[in-house]
Amino acid sequence: MGTAFTCRLIEAGYSPFIWNRSPEKAAHLVAQGARWSNQPLAECDRVIISLYSSESVAEVIGSMKGDLRSGQLLIDTTTGEPEHVERMGNELLQMGVHYLDAPISGSSEQTRRGEAVVLVGGPTEVVDSCGDLWPVLGRTLHHCGPLGSASRMKLVTNLVLGLNRAALAEGLGFARSIGVNPTAALEVLRGSAAQSKVMDTKGEKMLQGDFSPQARLSQHRKDVEIIVRDGAAAGLDLPLSNLHLDLLREAEKQGLGTLDNSAIARLWGLGT
Fold first, then answer.
1. Could you tell me which residues come within 8 angstroms of residue 72 by beta carbon, excluding any fewer than 6 positions away?
2. Residue 73 gets which letter from DSSP?
3. If we measure between CA atoms, which residue out of 140, 181, 169, 174 comes closest to residue 157?
4. Could you tell me where the DSSP H helices lie in the chain?
5. What's the pLDDT score for residue 52?
6. For the chain, which domains are there?
7. Residues forming beta bridges with residue 118, ordered by sequence position
8. Are strands 73-76 and 46-49 parallel, antiparallel or unpaired?
9. How far apart are CA 99 and CA 123, in angstroms?
10. At CA 123, angle to CA 118 and CA 129, rounded to 5?
11. How many angstroms separate the CA atoms of 40 and 113, rounded?
12. pLDDT band, very low/low/confident/very high, at 78 (cuts 50, 70, 90)
């Protein structure tokens, strides 16, 4: 996702500083016009964060805390834990640093094409101050409310999106098992009342076995764990999400965790 953001920024005329815990992964972006920085928090007034988890965000910000300064803005696009987001925001605000949670609804490929949806939580005046950035990061912006609200909304979207993906995989696997060509099934599904956007973004990947990662399966397993945990804390049973979590864990046991989340289709024998 960080790569997609950087490419979008360069195309929009920005000359962004970039940093990665694995510098070699950023070399191709430097070649395209980005500028490497060993101290991005020291050099940038606005910082876009894109990491794996809330724990990763805390680790990275903690390691660079000495470079933070009053008036700075951190835009965290990580799909993280809402309570962590709120705690981090309160800590940073005591230093005069603004913090927005801005998770992206969409894959890295959709983001790269400018088709993603940006969910943002935080004070209206801080959100409005980034009016030039939101169209670069996504096609649509939803200001969900105060800090933490966007992270909660992202969990809602990921719950439904993940179940749509699993349902498509099971449906295509079922089609093949009863003698229906999965390619024909996907075409019919796309034009039927069962249609979902997942069919356009993940259907062909499932059929072709192209599981090059746009969003890794293990990353979604992490999100579903948060969903199940937060549902239980609210006193709500989520039977479909609990089953989905079991499926994702089984996929990881089969070595599919680093592949695209559409690789869940392998559980039904697709893409092999």
1. 41, 44, 45, 46, 47, 96, 97, 98
2. E
3. 140
4. 2-11, 27-32, 40-43, 54-63, 82-93, 108-112, 124-128, 134-137, 149-177, 182-190, 197-208, 217-233, 239-253
5. 87
6. 2-147 (3.40.50.720), 152-268 (1.10.1040.10)
7. 104, 141
8. parallel
9. 9
10. 70
11. 26
12. very high
Mention every residue, 6+ apart, whose C-beta is less than 8 A from residue 131.
none
pLDDT in tens, 195-220: 999 999 999 999 999 999 988 999 99
* Cut 0.70: pTM above it: yes
**Which secondary structure element, helix H or strand E, spans residue 109, and what is its range?**
helix 108-112
Per the DSSP assignment, residues forming a β-bridge with 268 are: none
Q: At what angle do helices 82-93 and 149-177 cross, to 10 degrees?
A: 150
- From residue 254, how far is each of 7, 171, 245, 264 by CA, in Å? 33, 21, 14, 10
Q: Which whole number is the average pLDDT over 118-136?
A: 96
Strand pairing report for 104-105 and 117-121: antiparallel
Q: Residue with structure tokens 């972006």? A: 29
Token look-up 């019919």 returns 188
| Polymer length of the chain | 272
Rounded Cα–Cα distance for residues 88 and 264 (Å):
33
* Residue where the block lists tokens 């070595």: 255
Tokens describing residue 110: 């959709």
- The single residue listed with the structure tokens 């209206």 is 124
Confidence category of residue 107, pLDDT binned at 50, 70, 90: confident
DSSP-assigned beta bridge partners for residue 145: 121
Q: What are phi and psi of 204, to 5 degrees?
A: -65, -35
Q: Between β-strands 140-145 and 117-121, what pairing exists: parallel, antiparallel or unpaired?
A: parallel
